[in-house]
Amino acid sequence: METVLSTHQLSKQYGRLKAVDKLDLSVPKGSVFGILGPNGSGKTTTLGMLLDVIQPTGGSYDWFGKPGSKEQRKKIGAILETPIFYPYLSAVKNLEVVALIKEVSKDRIPQVIEQVGLSERQHDKYRTYSLGMKQRLSIASALLCDPEVMILDEPTNGLDPQGIADIRQLIINIANEGKTIVLASHLLDEVQKVCTDFAVLKNGTLIYTGKVEDVEKGESKVIVKAEENLENTLANCPLVQGHIPSTNGRFEVTMVTGKTSADLNKYLFDKQVIVSHLETQTKSLEKQFLELLNENK
Amino acid sequence: MNRLLKIEFSKLLSYRTFWILIGIYFVVMGITTMSGMEFLKWLAEKGAQFGEVNIMKVPLYHFPDIWQNLTYVAQYFRLLLGIFVIISITNEFSYKTIRQNVIDGLSRADFIASKVLIILGISIVSTVFVFLIGILMGSIYSPESEMRFMFKHIDFIPAFFLATFNYLLLVMVIALIVKRAGLSIVIVLVYPAIEFMIEVILPGPLEFLTNYLPYHALSNLIDVPFGRYIFLEIRDSVAFSDIALNLLYIPILIWAGYQTIAKKNLS
User: Fold this and answer.
1) Confidence band for A219, pLDDT divided at 50, 70 and 90
2) Considering only CB atoms, which chain B residues are within 8 Å of A104?
3) CA-to-CA distance for B93 and B98, rounded, in angstroms?
4) Interface test with chain A among B100, B118, B263, by most A beta carbons within 10 Å
5) Which residue among A52, A87, A93 places its CB closest to the CB of B95?
6) Which of B169, B116, B109 is nearest to B8 (CA)?
7) Whole-angstrom Cα distance, residue A24 to residue A6?
8) Buried-most residue among A87, A219, B21, B28 (CB within 10 A)?
């Protein structure tokens, strides 16, 4: 598979602190790549190095198979940490500066402003904007060059629930156009909802990288409730690896690999156990994330 | 080149502080340099005496004296342009926009180049303005017989340009190092005194070395002209060695400015 971004032993040291330590990442084309990690794990430092604002102390990185350059950055739409614009300029004027830097036409400005829902305030000075509006403008700015790759660092920071949902939909839409997105976040739910791949950083080292769908695979857990005979039947069921009582008379059942809640339902029905509650629990990224962090203590 | 200048313009054209500073500069400098005769009249009323000379007969605005008189006085107002340069650079650090500029695809060298270009532009506009004042005032006050000297000593005009340009480059380097507006203005104000202190500290035979410091170098381009009206010997031309030294300082100052951000993390 074609690789958009790869890092080789990329490192950044601040005095004695290793902010990023020998990082090897590879982002496939067309993926939505989540970079996860607790605060201070090196997410922003990594992105800063990839965008040439932080000088690596070791290692290297390639964009589209070539070492990073300003010409490549012109084709990348990126926001890092908080939105940054000239406070005395309007949204439109700020985007004009970006368009000149990126050497793209100004014609797309109304379109991207519309896309993030800022049209009504587009001629107001940036400093009069709320945090949510600033965040939207930075996404508009990242979209301006119709980028092949977008880098978004905590893009839903400071947004209200509607704003978060809008931005999430926007990311999904952009991804569906075949674009690659690198998304740094500590909101695991967000990464699980939009990402295809993810990497976990801790104290500057990569502790896991893989596909989001793999997290959801594997042995599944089913919550089941029935009025009578449930526990006995479960104990003798060949589809079940184990079961433990849960709240409200429910049981948490671990299925044999490959078997699903539908199989369990059919089995119980055949044994004349009528199920009143049946729920499949997908393994959440959050759980996996916390497990990973604990394993790597 | 053109693109970098356009970027800089789109940052500035809607910025009120820019227009206010530039406006004050041209208005105050224009009024001051054009009111020399009024000043002499005021001196005369106060009873000032230039020896035997009738004060009102001092040929301030006569060709070719006007070029040195005018450029010497006009250069005192460059501090206002310096404040503008400081603000345009320190803003980029306080708003962190330099970082976003680099993320968006400007190299650090492009950033310095865009600032140098705007400084170049301002220096040119300022020089043209002084030149026009010179032509205007000289034509008004010069007697017919001196009109043929109109372009004699016109070399003070390029010297004025060089002094302004290098001064603003020096200010740019200070602002890039300090990164904060207030402190940069203070340092720009005391910087000439620092060079003077070096002159004082150095033992006599080595004092000439201070002439090679950047502020001395650009100040030496245009000598104080007014001594000639009380029959003192003055240098009424621009020395080639001063021009050469200042030309040498252009790449040095730009290089120094670039070094302040070349290897730095922009956070």
Assistant:
1) low
2) none
3) 6
4) B100
5) A87
6) B116
7) 7
8) B21
CB contact under 8 A, B14 and A90: yes
Chain A residue nearest residue B92, CA to CA: A86
**B49 pLDDT higher than 80:** no
Whether residue A297 has pLDDT greater than 70: no
Per CATH, the number for A3-215 is 3.40.50.300
Give residue A185's identity as a one-letter amino acid code.
S
**Mind spelling out the 3-state secondary structure of B210-260?**
HHHCHHHHHHCCCCCCHHHHHCCCCCCCCCHHHHHHHHHHHHHHHHHHHHH
Domain layout of chain A by residue ranges: 3-215, 221-281
pLDDT of residue B52: 65
Q: How confident is the model at residue A165 (pLDDT cuts 50, 70, 90)?
A: confident
Its CATH architecture, for the domain A221-281, is 2-Layer Sandwich (3.30)
* CA–CA separation, B139 and B118 (whole Å): 32
Compute the distance between CA of residue B221 and CA of residue B72 in angstroms, rounded to an integer: 9
Residues of chain B in contact with residue A103, where contact means CB-CB under 8 angstroms, are: 3, 105
A96 and B267: CB-CB below 8 Å?
no
B chain contacts of residue A98, beta-carbon cutoff 8 Å:
104
Asked whether the predicted pLDDT for residue B195 surpasses 90, the reply is: yes
Q: How confident is the model at residue B51 (pLDDT cuts 50, 70, 90)?
A: low
Residue-level length of chain A = 297
Say if B179 is an interface residue toward chain A (CB within 8 Å): no
State chain A's mean pLDDT as an integer. 87
> In chain A, which residue's Cα lies nearest the Cα of B111?
A101
Q: Where are the domains of chain B?
A: 2-262
Tell me how far CA of residue B171 lies from CA of A290, B156, B212, B258, in angstroms. 53, 22, 17, 13
